[in-house]
Amino acid sequence: MSARPVVLVVVGAGPGGTVLTERLSANAAEFAGDRPVEIHVADPYPPGGGRVWRLDQPDLLWMNSQAADVTMFTDETVRIDGPIRPGPTLCEWGDVEPGRFPTRRLQNAYLSWCFRRVADTPPAPVTVHVHAARVLDVADGAGGAQLVRIEGRAEPIHADAVILAQGHLDVTPGPEHRRLADFAAAHGLTYVPPHYAADTDLGVLRPGEPVVMRGMGLGFIDDMVLLTEGRGGRFTARPDGRLTYHPSGREPILYTGSRRGVPYHSKITYELSGERPPGPRHFTPAVTEELYDRRGPLDLRTDLWPLMARELAWHHYHELFGAHPDRVALPWPEFEARLDAGPAELDALVEEAVPKREDRLDLDRLLDPLAGERFEDAEALQERIRAYVTADVERHADPAHSADLAVFYGLLTVFGVLVDAVNNGRLAARSQAEDVGAWLHGVFGYYASGPPPRRLRELEALSRAGIVRFLGPGITVAAEDGRFRAGGTATPATVDARALVEARLPSASVARTTDPLLRALYDRGEAAEEELTDADGTRYPLGKLAVRDGRLVTATGRTHPRRFALGSWAGRGFAVVGFTRPRTNALPFRLADALARAALKEATGPRA
């Protein structure tokens, strides 16, 4: 009599589901022995790319990662308990120039190939089954079996464990977005809530009319591209390397602003000139543990940011001194020793050691470049932001400023340490809810996850052509007098428009999700939103799916032993999964391997 197979269901076949499927396959034999293992992967979108990276989207939509920085496979740097199974990066697989920013359609081809490799050539004793449909519900069956109901399938799958890896999901509008949508409907206006550009009908935005775009991150760049080149406009190169935009006449006029008033920093397109510093030095897990033991729950801005800033300074000056010794006035050992001694004299030390202001790290200015600036009229603001964008693109293409790239690596380092602090409960609830999500994620995205430089050169050209108008920092939008009225803090000018676009992705909200599986689990109390509670009893909902040790948490606070979740919508910390940078001991692979092993251990154990 053959052994009963071990059955696992992965909900979601995008990059996260693909990595989890690969890690389940890689680890299966250790836990299942000779028992057959069946992995069922369910997603209504084609596997590999999933929804976000699917094939049917315009070639105008690009990745904001270079081809050399994209891999779906573990390598020798990844410290995990499971086996390493290497594979090609995007640039190796597609014979693409390492510095190229691929289209999302090309990324889809790579991700689809990766999934096929995982599904078609699994190690014994694994078989992978793909279901092109939604998972509608999961219920407990006899002996702890998980009865997984899939759209279009008469009988449920009897699974030993289920892993949710659905990535970003749709939500119904929150109170603010409902209010603006109701106002728009009442006055014949157009309101586009937070959205995915490839999924949204931007045809509702009329040619020649002003449109307020709230947000200047990657969502804004996607919308900008589709509303300009996507409507027939074109760019030509000038002798000075800048671009000129030739309108088609079908573009709206985009009035854009954000908290900072400038777009995300241009992606850096060179490599470090010196050696990357080894590990964290000033902001380490041991430091956060010691602080927590002395002070109790920590505040990110007050307790941790000074240490994080010092870590970033160490990365910056390590590269500056090592790669550009002609631009410093002290030997590195002396500078490093004085930096280690404490932050009190840092400004004086930097002034003594680094003669040129452009070589010094000024985090306040770097992260908020227009702070305190005021302009007499809107045109002066346009010139200021155009000059900023041009200078940013030029600097991030110039290896003479390689210390900027060192700061990027410094951010990766401090995020790794912060993950440890969050996962070990060292942050106060308020600080974790407000500072990590709303502030620090914004800092990281603004500095490290910006668009390809070409997109910012296009933005500058669109501004000169009058298609884009900058509102500047501190954007405010009022719904009054039958119009949307927007302005910023840098000028007294405002604009009235009949259209408002929230140029960003929807925030996670399990309570407002439209996903049928999460909706069913949440309504029955078998899934809950993650919520933090401070010492004074104040509650801070995070909107994400509550998990503990990777397992779903119910409304009563219990964990379900056979239901797991991983991804951008799961957990209180940084439960990311999917493609990542190669040879960086990447966190997504470490999290996926640990969760896969936990699910296999549960699935191969005796049913209750």
Question: How far is it from the N-terminal to the C-terminal residue, by CA?
Answer: 22 Å
And the CATH topology of the largest domain? FAD/NAD(P)-binding domain
Shape: globular
For the sheet with most strands, the description reads: 7 strands, mixed
Bin the helical content: 25-40%
In what order do the strands lie side by side in the largest sheet?
A: 3-2-1-7-22-21-20
Number of strands: 22
Helix-strand makeup class: alpha/beta
Number of helices: 16
Assign the CATH architecture of the largest domain: 3-Layer(bba) Sandwich
How big is the Rg? 25 Å
Domain module count:
3
Contiguous runs where pLDDT drops below 50 for at least 5 residues: none
CATH class of the largest domain reads Alpha Beta
Name the beta content range: 15-25%
Average pLDDT score: 95
Can you say what the CATH homologous superfamily of the largest domain is?
FAD/NAD(P)-binding domain
Note down, in words, how this protein is organized.
With 608 residues, the protein is of the alpha/beta class. It folds into 3 domains: 6-170 and 548-604, 3-Layer(bba) Sandwich (FAD/NAD(P)-binding domain); 175-264 and 453-502, FAD/NAD(P)-binding domain (3-Layer(bba) Sandwich); 285-377 and 394-448, no CATH class. The chain has 16 helices and 22 strands. It has helices spanning 15-32, 90-94, 104-120, 175-187, 218-227, 285-295, 300-323, 332-340, 346-353, 363-367, 378-395, 403-423, 429-448, 453-464, 516-523, 587-604, and strands at 6-11, 37-42, 126-131, 135-140, 146-150, 157-159, 161-164, 190-192, 210-214, 234-237, 243-246, 253-257, 468-472, 476-480, 483-487, 494-497, 499-502, 529-533, 539-545, 547-548, 551-553, 559-565. The strands form 6 sheets. The chain has a 7-stranded mixed beta sheet with strand order 3-2-1-7-22-21-20, covered by helices on one side. Strands 8-17-9-12-13 form a 5-stranded parallel beta sheet. Strands 4-5-6 form a 3-stranded antiparallel beta sheet. A hairpin with a 5-residue loop joins β4 (135-140) and β5. α1 runs parallel beside α3 (104-120), α7 packs antiparallel against α12 and α11 runs antiparallel to α14. It holds the Pfam family NAD_binding_9. This is Adenylate cyclase. Residues 9-168 form the FAD-dependent urate hydroxylase HpyO/Asp monooxygenase CreE-like FAD/NAD(P)-binding domain.
